[in-house]
Design goal:
Blueprint (H helix, E strand, L loop, with lengths): L17 H19 L3 E2 L5 E3 H8 L4 H6 L1 E4 L5 E4 L4 H10 L9 E10 L11 E10 L4 H17 L6 E7 L3 H17 L6 H9 L10 H8 L10 H16 L4 E3 L11 E9 L7 E7 L3 H4 L7 E7 H7 L10 E5 L5 H13 L4 E3 L5 H10 L4 E5 L1 H6 L2 E5 L5 E4 L1 H8 L2
Length: about 425
């Protein structure tokens, strides 16, 4: 009796064919654009000491309290699959002794993340992110540059139309202290109407209530004070400078005083690129400044700023799927011509031409294989061709055929 075929775990999926081409296209474009800004790519482990995330994301965050994949390994250590990668990048900066040399560091990353949340359109339990971080820069221009890099990625992907940068400031420590007092007073007056999660946050981190998705909480948040009246002159000046630099860099912005980041390590700039093309979950890229995170990892004070974006959600915005490369099919008429066909296939590959040779079958079956793989041309080698040192080049789009030397055929097929 046949066993039931195994399926991917709920909230995960295979990236095959068109899905992988979309994923690869997004990551490749992001890698290219961040490279133009001087970012270097880092790859950190997909699992870390749980303290990396529990200390940096905040015990009251949904990620830590509800969504992390944590387990105790055989050595008794608490390990967590990374739910995001900013904390891991900052840990790597400290672990590798890079906090005192060659700052700022501009870091790009791409890879899988893991959160136990309800799967929905564009959101998975294993998902992929790209991200950019500038570590060790306190200046407003760093905020503007990392945001501009994100905007340029959206432009390069052809998905910037209908996407808006919404931006806010969370102020400096003094600003947030004053704002916290105002928020506590506001939410305490509505405490009985708050959700259970928000009542807990009221005691520990009232700014988190601003990010609540509960409908009852949202009505109370709508009348909450904004941070702007509580900003210090220095914090106001910093935010004004960020906006000015973004204008110079040509990034269209819209101020949104309700934007907060859902993690404890953010300060000053907070931003989201949003769209209405993905339904209610419209954020495609988000980030901000996090001047205290490297210290949480045991390093010195290292002002930093960055963003992350979900590859799956960016992929959904692409107007068309990237085309699969069209190979050249090399077809020996019989087994006797296989050695010459193998040599020709390798010549094509050495010249940068995608080439395939069918492993078996007569001429008809091998030509059928060429059509199935979408080959743009076929190089046919029979007994006469091998003897005469030529090959039949058949253009499968135009239907034309030439009998030419192999070197000339390779030259024609390059590009």
């Amino acid at each position: 009796m046949a066993s039931t075929p195994l399926q991917p775990v709920r909230g995960t999926r295979d990236l095959i064919g068109e899905d992988f081409r979309r994923y690869h296209h997004v990551v490749t474009a992001a890698r290219r654009i961040t490279g133009l800004y001087g970012f270097e790519e880092w790859a950190t482990p997909i699992f870390e000491d749980t303290r990396v995330f529990a200390r940096s994301l905040g015990e009251t965050s949904d990620v830590v309290s509800k969504e992390m994949y944590s387990f105790t390994d055989r050595g008794g250590d608490s390990i967590t699959l990374r739910p995001e990668n900013t904390a891991g990048v900052c840990r790597a900066l400290v672990s590798n002794g890079l906090t005192q040399s060659n700052l700022p560091r501009k870091v790009f990353y791409a890879g899988p993340m893991f959160r136990y949340e309800r799967p929905q359109k564009g959101r998975y339990r294993q998902f992929h992110q790209i991200g950019a971080e500038i570590l060790g820069a306190a200046e407003p221009l760093a905020d503007a540059e990392v945001i501009a890099a994100g905007w340029n990625i959206l432009e390069a992907l052809g998905i910037s139309d209908g996407v808006v940068l919404e931006i806010n400031t969370l102020g400096d420590a003094e600003s947030r202290d004053a704002y916290r007092t105002a928020l506590v007073a506001h939410f305490t007056a509505h405490k009985d109407s708050l959700s259970e999660d928000s009542r807990i946050r009221l005691e520990k981190n009232p700014m988190r209530i601003l990010d609540s998705k509960d409908e009852g909480d949202r009505r109370i948040v709508a009348t909450a004070p904004t941070i702007q009246p509580y900003l210090t002159p220095a914090a106001s000046a910093f935010f004004a400078a960020v906006l000015k630099h973004l204008e110079t860099l040509g990034v269209p912005t819209r101020e949104n005083p309700r934007i907060v980041r859902g993690l404890d390590y953010y300060s000053h700039t907070a931003f989201e690129f949003v769209t209405d093309r993905l339904g209610a979950q419209g954020t495609v890229m988000a980030g901000g400044r996090y001047d205290g995170l490297v210290e949480e990892m045991g390093g010195p004070a290292t002002p930093s700023v960055g963003w992350a974006a979900g590859v799956e959600r960016l992929s959904m915005l692409l107007a068309a799927s990237p085309a699969a490369p069209r190979p050249v099919a090399v077809i020996p008429v019989s087994e006797a011509q296989e050695p010459a066909a193998i040599q020709l296939t390798q010549q094509l590959r050495a010249a940068g031409v995608t080439a395939e040779i069918a492993y078996k079958g007569n001429l008809k079956r091998r030509m059928e294989r060429a059509n199935k793989i979408g080959a743009r041309a076929a190089l046919i080698l029979g007994e006469d061709e091998v003897a005469q040192g030529v090959v039949q080049l058949r253009d499968l789009d135009a239907g034309t055929q030439d009998r030419i030397p192999p070197a000339e055929a390779v030259a024609r097929l390059i590009g």
